[in-house]
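Design a sequence for this backbone.
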């Protein structure tokens, strides 16, 4: 048995490192923060410990290992470093190999490296965080929690593409789905709010942020999700196009002389809300611009938001085909939790599924609030703040306790 249930959660990107020290059982957070713009002259790190906020602005290249060293220093000063029982790491892609958390070993790191071909922007960055943490916390167990794991319950009819079968057999080309820890967390919270066992609940969950995904959850398990082989598929997002006619790619290359790298950058970094509005990938900026006096700015901001909300509603409606009953809709993520406008616009398209918004309820739920925003004669639509860090901490602790018990 561990002395406590405190887990340090690490979510590492190519130039960033987010962290949170929390009690896996209660969800209480003792420290959190983020290191950003790593390996540049503008690197910075913010560390929040209880009521104290530590922020460092660094004037030299600063890597992930040094960021963890700064975190260790701050936790040591706050007498928290010895309270850590284990490290839980977010890993984006687990392929078909991993549907559950797993203790990190050299062979597991090698598999995560091999899976980098499926997530070249994410898995290598996740490994950087793992190796930096292993150097600093040599004696502590380290666990990988995979973003794709929750979606491994999808049936073949949901995850197979209509491509030659050997592409799946030989190269693992299939839908995987992402944001798994978020969809898992909010569906459990929704079941609690409805006072039903999660195994008896079916939801459609919309995680809306800079990245967006919609997931159909049947009896507590993912049965379909909008993101696919990569996080590019599905509804439009902050800078990602979402699903488009694949023929557009050939047109860009053959007729407009785009290189494949330029197409990749276009679809991932220059499209979505940013591309359509020509203004911003931030929903708040676009909502404000939509009411501005600048006709062109207002028109394009409105267009981007209108297409965004319509695509989300279409995805939600289409996923009703995956379910035999529907207990409710869930909004989560930065936009889903805070944009009363987006929630209202999405729900206006879903009256056929018996979703009818209560505007007064919708307007008061923001900034971390939660609750049902629909009328009493409507199916529930629940706004639930996500907490992926708690899922990672909880699953890390549960795995290690299970290993100890035998």
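Sequence:
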């Amino acid at each position: 048995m561990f002395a406590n249930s405190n887990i340090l959660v690490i979510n590492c990107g190519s130039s960033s490192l987010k962290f949170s020290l929390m009690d896996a059982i209660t969800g209480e957070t003792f420290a959190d923060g983020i290191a950003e713009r790593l390996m540049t002259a503008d690197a910075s790190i913010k560390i929040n410990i209880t009521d104290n906020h530590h922020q460092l602005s660094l004037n030299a290249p600063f890597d992930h290992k040094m960021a963890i060293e700064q975190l260790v220093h701050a936790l040591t000063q706050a007498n928290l470093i010895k309270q850590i029982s284990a490290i839980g790491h977010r890993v984006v892609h687990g392929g078909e190999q991993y549907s559950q958390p797993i203790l990190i070993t050299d062979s597991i790191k090698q598999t995560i490296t091999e899976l980098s071909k499926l997530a070249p922007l994410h898995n290598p960055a996740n490994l950087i965080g793992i190796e930096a943490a292993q150097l600093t916390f040599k004696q502590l167990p380290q666990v990988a929690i995979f973003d794709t794991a929750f979606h491994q319950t999808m049936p073949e009819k949901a995850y197979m593409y209509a491509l030659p079968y050997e592409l799946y057999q030989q190269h693992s080309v299939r839908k995987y789905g992402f944001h798994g820890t978020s969809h898992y967390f909010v569906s459990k919270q929704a079941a609690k709010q409805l006072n039903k066992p999660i195994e008896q609940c079916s939801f459609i969950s919309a995680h809306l942020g800079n990245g967006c995904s919609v997931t159909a959850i049947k009896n507590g398990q993912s049965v379909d999700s909008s993101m696919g082989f990569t996080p590019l598929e599905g509804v439009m997002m902050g800078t990602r196009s979402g699903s488009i006619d694949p023929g557009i790619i050939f047109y860009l290359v053959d007729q407009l002389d785009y290189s494949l790298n330029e197409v990749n950058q276009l679809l991932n970094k220059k499209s979505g809300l940013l591309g359509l509005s020509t203004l911003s990938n931030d929903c708040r900026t676009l909502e404000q611009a939509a009411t501005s006096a600048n006709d062109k700015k207002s028109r394009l901001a409105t267009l981007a938001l209108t297409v965004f909300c319509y695509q989300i509603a279409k995805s939600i409606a289409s996923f009703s085909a995956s379910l035999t009953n529907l207990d409710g809709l869930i909004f989560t993520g930065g936009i889903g939790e805070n944009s009363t406008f987006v929630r209202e616009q999405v729900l206006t398209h879903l009256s056929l599924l018996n979703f009818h918004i209560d505007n007064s309820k919708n307007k008061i739920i923001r900034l971390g609030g939660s609750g049902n925003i629909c009328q009493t004669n409507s199916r529930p639509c629940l706004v639930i703040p996500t907490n992926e860090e708690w899922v990672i901490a909880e699953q890390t602790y549960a795995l290690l306790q299970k290993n100890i018990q035998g």
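The mean pLDDT is 93.
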